[in-house]
Amino acid sequence: DLQELEDEGLLQRIHGGAKKEDLLGFEQNMSEKTLKNVREKQMIARLAAELVNDEEVIYLDAGSTTLEMIPFLKDKQITVVTNSVKHAAALVDLQISTIVLGGQVKLSTNAVLGANTLSQLQAYHFNKAFMGMNGVHLERGFTTPDPEEAAVKRLAITNAQDSYVLLDHTKFNKQTFVSVAPLQDATIITERCPLEFLDDYSERTTIKEANQ
Question: Which pairing describes strands 104-106 and 111-113: parallel, antiparallel, or unpaired?
């Protein structure tokens, strides 16, 4: 019964029981996110970084999993555009050519958002975009709780030749407040897709799984 309720997005199973699923508009702050599923995020980040080639221009979205990509980008001859002040600082520390978008900083996630952000982003085009998301759902696609963050994510995906969404297994079959893009608009990079969802998601998009 608990498995069925979790599959429907109504609760999340935990050790010893279950808890009610988060509200659609709720989002943890960056410090909380960085402490969750760290090993899984690092596996995903390593695989994502392997897709980056020298001389490329990439977009690195704000988020805890995309943040884990940065150490794996060391010594790559690339230009990175990001909407995260935290990401920008880490990239500069590694002497990676970095453009940080201007706008208002959302304190809980360190993401730069707003009309100025969108205006600047509109002018840029990328070889690859690496995106964070709060959920992925067969019918709702990729989702996030914040409409302003959704607008930035949507435009970055549109302006990239290839887009990748970095998700750990807990994000599958979850939906939050705002739809960002349909499944076919991006390749999912994950440490594993739960077996009960694998066939359905594989019919709609490409899934790259990191090796254990």
Answer: antiparallel
Q: Is 87 helix (H, G, I), strand (E, B) or coil?
A: helix
3-class secondary-structure state, position 127: strand
Q: Give 84's contacts (C-beta < 8 A, 6+ positions apart).
A: 60, 61, 62, 63, 66, 67, 100, 110, 111, 112
What is the residue whose two structure tokens read 């002497």? 95
pTM (predicted TM-score): 0.84
Token digits of residue 3: 């498995």
What is the spatial distance between Cα 187 and Cα 101, in angstroms, rounded to a whole number? 24
Which tens digits make up the pLDDT trace of 116-155? 999 999 999 999 999 999 999 999 999 999 999 999 999 9
Strand partners of residue 112: 105
Indicate the pairing of strand 17-20 with strand 111-113.
Answer: unpaired
Beta-bridged to residue 188, according to DSSP, are 165, 207
Which alpha helices (DSSP H) does the chain contain, by range?
2-7, 30-33, 38-50, 64-69, 85-93, 115-122, 147-158, 195-204
Work out the average pLDDT over 80-88.
97
Distance CA 6, CA 137 (A): 13
Residue type, 112: V
Cα distance between the two ends of the chain: 30
Write out pLDDT tens, residues 27-36. Answer: 555 545 554 6
| Helix, strand, coil % over all residues of the chain, rounded to 5 | 35, 30, 35
